[in-house]
Every structure is written in C-alpha cells, then in structure tokens.
C-alpha cells in the first residue's frame, strides 16, 4: 500500500498538507518533552539532563521497528522509501557545527521555533539567526560546493554498508538505545545529587 | 526507576527481537484480481504481425520482442533483435531485468498465441506493465509477412495496401527479389491532333 505518494494512492500535492500535519505534531512533541527550554537541551553536554537523547533515540527505534513490521505486513514497500544521500564530509562538519550550536545557543533549529512559539526571546533570536545562516549558506554555496558534495556514498543505509539486514540493525539500535537510557539515568542521578532544581525519582 | 519505563524498554527489546525471527517475505507487487480479469478479457494486449513488422522496419526504440519458445527453437528462427525468455524460465530472477524496463513495450510471441498469452498473464501478475502479445505468433508471421497471399480482385483498397506492405516487409525480412508484375497492360495514349483550330476565345 504505502508509501502513499509514490504508489499514486494520493497525489503529490498532498505532501505539503502532510508536512504541515507532521510538523505540527513534531512541534507539539518537542514542546511537550520540554525541548523549548535551552537548559534541557544544553544539559546533555553538562550531564544533568539527557532528555534530548532519550526522546530522539525513542523516536528513532520506534520508527525503525515499526517500519520493518509495516514492511513485513505489506503495508509499506520499504524499497520505495526515500533514503537521504550521505555526503560524508558535509555530514561530519554539519554535525560538528550543529553540536556547537546546540551547546552555545541552547537550541537546535526545530526547538528554537518551539521556543519562539511560546514567546521566548532567545528562541526568536536563534530562529531569526538560522534564517540569516541559511541565506548566507545559499549565497556562498559556490565557494564550498566541492567540499559539500565530496565523499558521496549515495543513498546508502547502515545495513547496506555493513552487509547486514535491516532487522539486525534495528535490533542492535534498540539494544544500544536501552543501554544508553540506563547509563544516562545513572549519570543524571549522580550529577543531580547536588542540584536543588531537579527532583529525581 | 519507574516501572513503566522498565516495561516499555522490555517491550521494545521484545519487538525488535521478534524482527529477527520473522521469516523472509517477498512482496511481489501483484495486480488486483479484478483488474487482471478485466485486462484478460480485453483484446487490447494483442498487436498484429503487421504492426510488429512495421515497428521492426522503422526501428522503433521502444520495441522489445520476447521469444517465449525453447532455446532450440529460438536458435533455429527468431525475429530480429528478439530476446529469448523460455516460458519455463519466466519467473527466473535472471530474466526479470528484461521485463521491467521503463518506456519499453514488451511483445511476447511464440509459435502461436497460447504460450505468449500465458507469459503475458504471469508477467502481468508480477506487476509488469506495457506488455503485449503478437497475435497469431510466428505461424501468423510466416503466413502474413513472409508469404503474403494476394487478396481477391474484389477486395477493398485497404487490403491491397496491406498486401503491398506485406510484400515489402517480406522482401525486407527475407531478402527475396522484388517481384515485378507481369500482366502489365499497355496503356494507349491518345494525343490530341495538332493544328486544330482554336476553339472559342476572343
């Protein structure tokens, strides 16, 4: 059956409507998880709050396992699902810049909009700055185009890269995620011992 | 630690472990039975031998002829540029690449319609599109294209035109000599006598 647009069950014009709905739901989850607070986000780096890691890891493993079950049931054709191409250089540098932005600004692009939406001034400044950054990136793109497209691995998945099946990769990630949840719980417990603003159960 | 978290973590591991034990499953995209039934009773999948001959002569780049007979028969005689997918091997993965090519019109043929029709049905069930069957198969090809029969004198003009095309195609495919018509009746040309007085005018 799925994916709906490539299988022509609905037309391509729906993608903006679906993006709007998913975007709204995503923003709601970000806000509900406390991501509009830069304290929570920057807490990953100081070791007192790993909610970012937990939320994103949970989202990832649920989506992974869910997609594979959907595929098994024949509800979605996994071969038609778009895989983003991997440009190794730009991903490494982009990840580094993103991490830097995380710890300096206290937001990632999505969470800055959630913060702006609930009226936080730092969120608005951050969101405005991302727009300036996007503009500058687009204007100066020819300068670093070569670096941007270098080391293109194509539309590759982790399973294809290591010659393992998607199921094995999904299981490995679930195990890694659960271990990470437990370890971060231990770290948080230790770090927060002397912090009065956090209660820990 | 909250018991709910423990329960959810165990559930997630259980579900992920379940993935490892799922039997492998091929999701062949099959056509819906009612659509297949509808297409099977239509005659739109048939192309005539004349159409095929025309496409071969014009070098139609979208044409892909598939010979569903055995390899021995294929080697004895086959149409120009045809690929051989023996009917028994149609489901063989090695041959699948020939069928799903975008924008190509696959035309199945055998000695007659029967095998080609069955091949059409199987390939259609596998979800391939743009599949056709050469009506009458190679028997019809020999009768119509290689050895065309002159239509009766009372036949319509289109039948004669078709015959002319088939004769031309026969020459193209067999390399036989151009047949000149022997019963050419001489036409008597009647000329107007010169020097006749100008009739009328001012």
In short:
The complex is a heterodimer of chains A (201) and B (202). Chain A has 201 residues and is mainly α.
Number of helices of chain B: 8
Helix content of chain A: 55-70%
The CATH topology of the domain at 33-136 in chain B turns out to be Oxidized Rhodanese, domain 1
Full CATH superfamily name of the domain at 33-136 in chain B: Rhodanese-like domain
The CATH class name of the domain at 33-136 in chain B reads Alpha Beta
Largest interface, Cβ cutoff 8 Å? A-B, 20 and 15 residues
Query: Based on CA inertia axes, which overall geometry of chain B fits?
Result: elongated
Strand order of the largest sheet of chain A: 1-2
How many strands of chain B? 5
Based on Cα principal axes, name the global outline of chain A.
Answer: globular
Low-pLDDT windows of residues of chain A: none
How many structurally independent domains of chain A? 2
CATH architecture of the domain at 33-136 in chain B: 3-Layer(aba) Sandwich
Q: What is the H/E order of chain B?
A: HHEHEHEHEHEHH
Distance between the termini of chain A: 44 Å
Question: What does this molecule look like?
Answer:
The complex is a heterodimer of chains A (201) and B (202). Helix content of chain A is 66%, strand content 2%. Chain A is built from 9 helices and 2 strands. The longest helix of chain A has 26 residues. Chain A is globular, with a radius of gyration of 19 Å. Chain B is α/β, with parallel strands linked by helices. Among the domains of chain B are: 104 residues, Rhodanese-like domain (Oxidized Rhodanese, domain 1, 3-Layer(aba) Sandwich), CATH 3.40.250; 30 residues. Chain B is built from 8 helices and 5 strands; from the N terminus they run ααβαβαβαβαβαα. In chain B, helix 6 links the parallel strand 4 and strand 5. In chain B, helix 3 packs across helix 8. The relative contact order of chain B is 0.12. The model of chain B has no long low-confidence stretch (mean pLDDT 83). Chains A and B meet through helix 3 and helix 9 of A and helix 1 of B.
